[in-house]
Design a protein that fits this description.
With about 130 residues, the chain is mainly α. It has helices at about 10-20, 25-35, 40-55, 75-90, 95-100, 110-125, and strands spanning about 25, 55-60, 65-70. It has a three-stranded antiparallel sheet with strand order 1-3-2. The protein is elongated. It starts with 7 loop residues before the first helix and ends with a helix.
Length: about 130
Amino acid sequence: MRKAPVSDSELEVLKVLWATGPSTVRGVESRLRRRTRRLAYNTVLTLLSRLREKGYVAADRSGAAHVFRSIVTRDELLSHGLTNLADRICDGTASPLVHALVRGRRFSPKEIAHFRKLLDDLERKG
C-alpha cells in the first residue's frame, strides 16, 4: 500500500467511517461534531474528497446523496504507517520500533499470550 499520508483531520474522518460504516457527508459531519470538533459541511466534503483521491475511501454516487465508505482498515493504515516509520528512522529494521512500542508498557496476560504466539509463529516460519 503506497499511498499519500493522511492528515490528522482526514484521520478523524476515517475513524468515523470505521466506527459507523458507510455514511453521507452530513452523517460524517454530525458524528464528528459529537466526537471531536465542529467542521463545516464543505470542509467534511473536502476531506472526504481528498481521502477518495488518495485511495482511502470510495463513494457511491447512485443516490441523491453520495455515500462514502472506507476501503482501508485501521490495521492496514497502522501497518503502513509503522512500516514507513521503521523505514525512515530505523533503516527498515522493525525491532527497534517494536522495542520502543512495548518498553515500559503494561499488557494484560491475554495480550502477552498473543505476543508469544506471534513470536512462536515467526520462529517456526524461520
